[in-house]
Amino acid sequence: MKKILCPTDFSKTAAKALEYAVLIARQSGGHLTLLHVVHLPIVDTSETALVASELLGEQMRDAEERLVNLCREIEQRHGANQGGAFTCDYILKEALLTDITEYLTKTNGYDLIVMGTTGGGNALEELLIGSNAEAVMEQVKCPVLSIPSNSEHPRINKIIYASDYAQDDIATLREVLDFAAVFGASVDVVHVNKDDRASSEKKDRFLQEINHAFPGAPIRFEEVVSKRRRDGIKEYYDSTGADMVAILRREKGFLRELFSQSLAEKMTYQANVPLLVIKGKK
Description:
alpha/beta; Rossmann fold; 2 domains; 10 strands; 46% helix; elongated
């Protein structure tokens, strides 16, 4: 988490995400970049092109002023760019959000994206924000932390990792533990069963591998019973006072992509918890 990218549209939802981004940058001693994109539709006449150009210039000037003010506020409130724990700057581009985030994570070394999401609502703004968060998660390879609009003051003391007892959970859990270590947070590995079955051989083998891979790590294992996986995770989150849910987003085949949604997708669009989505390796 040495380079953190925080897209903003200057909304209240984006402000919630920025609070988390600042917390992470301070704790990790990293570099935080605010990102704002302006995108105008393609025009096909010289007259409309002139109007669009003027509108773009106005939007760019207004956005830059807002970004400068945000960076100044971060400097004054949190000590950024003052020889302290972290640094902050901004990027303003005419681009699509998904394209520029993919480009920056590939070429400029950003290793975490923090962005707001409302998800699940009927208002146009909520649908667009939810779609942006999901689209960015789909496009980029680095972890994405989505922050809901109803999030309270940022705190990271306990993280829930939703596990399938799968082999690729091991590598993902390593990333989660590294993230948790920055804050001294504990990690609860939670598996959801549809019925109350006895412990399986798969579970026992998984726990042995985890204990071998992470001896002495602050990990707790829990199984919960729920008909739907996301409901079980959410109920456990609420009952334990956790601060974040971490999920592995696996690469999906074409047919599976057509006919199903991943847990990450479902929880993103029904966002009411901070959600750290880590993309699986092919």
